[in-house]
Specification:
Low-confidence stretches: none
InterPro entries: Anthracycline_SecMetBiosynth, Glyas_Bleomycin-R_OHBP_Dase, Glyoxy/Ble-like_N, VOC_core
Number of strands: 8
Organism: Paenibacillus dokdonensis
Structural class: alpha/beta
Order of helices and strands: EHEHEEEHEEE
Strand content: 35-45%
Domain VOC: 3-126
Radius of gyration: 15 Å
Helix content: 10-25%
Mean pLDDT: 95
Distance between the termini: 36 Å
Strand order of the largest sheet: 1-4-3-2
Protein name: VOC family protein
Amino acid sequence: MGRIVHFEIHVDDMERAKKFYGEVFGWTFEDWSDYAGMPYFGAVTGDANELGINGALIRRQGASPEPGQAMNGYACTMGVEDYDSTETKILNLGGKLALPKYALPGMAWQGYYIDTEGNIFGIHQPDKNAK
């Protein structure tokens, strides 16, 4: 045991966050609010037969992260097929650049962004030719 099996993204505006993650990554959402006793939407991130985990959007219980604040938590990184088109979607839907695209030589392209709720996340496109 000890493997990550679920994640939660804390959000200020549930509908805005669902739109952002739904349109950028194709996630779908299930309302689990009655079960959780608060606004809580399960995030289905892909086919159950593919490697990966599902998570949820949860209403933030405190102050939003301040711009420039040090990371306080885990940064989730999503695998993508096309880094550049995903970046365009992120920026067009209100996300911001945190750390520009860089090569993990011989492995992938990686970069970090800030979602509409102030949270940092990464995207990762496998590419053995990255340099």
